[in-house]
Amino acid sequence: MAVDFSKVNTRVHCFAHILHLAVQAGLEKLQLPNVSDKDVVGGSDGPVKKDRVEVEKLFTLDMGLREWKLMDKDWNHLEKVQHLLEPLAQALSLVESAVYPTFVMVIPLFNIVMDKLEDMDIGLLLVFLMVWEAIMEVLQKYYAKTDSTRLYWIALVLHPAYKLSWMWEQGWETKYIDKVEVTIQATFDNKYASVAMGGLQPQRMQE
Question: Entry's InterPro entries (predicted)?
């Protein structure tokens, strides 16, 4: 018997896509310079006719690219951005490397990524704070949506490696754990209890 979930209860978002959206939102706050193709190819107005000619230009002409050269300060900033994005990259790698990605991975990975970001020392520069806030805003937006999606909670609690004990170990507030427990118990009582009890009753052999 299938559970009659509503559209809200069956709303599932791709976790990998959420991570990409968070990274995109963060990088947009860096306000990187907009370098046109014309700047890169040295002011050529027409299409590239021969690759060899263009390669020769790259080696023989300055093309005004010195202004885009990264200085030590720039590399330092990039290292900080890389450090800021590392938790998301690790989570994405874990999801993509899983043979069978499942719902049960989503809630724990959400918590791991956001916990690492909250514990991170991002320094005093406003730009890094803006990147951090943009990333967290996207993650928190989609994490909040899991509150109304029973599929995540059922998968998490039924998994032998997690169950409700995982939530207690993670320091979740009692009211949230109670909500999950009540929701899952109600789902079982309303949809599966009678079927399970009837299906497990031993049948008497006919004499």
Answer: RNaseH-like_sf
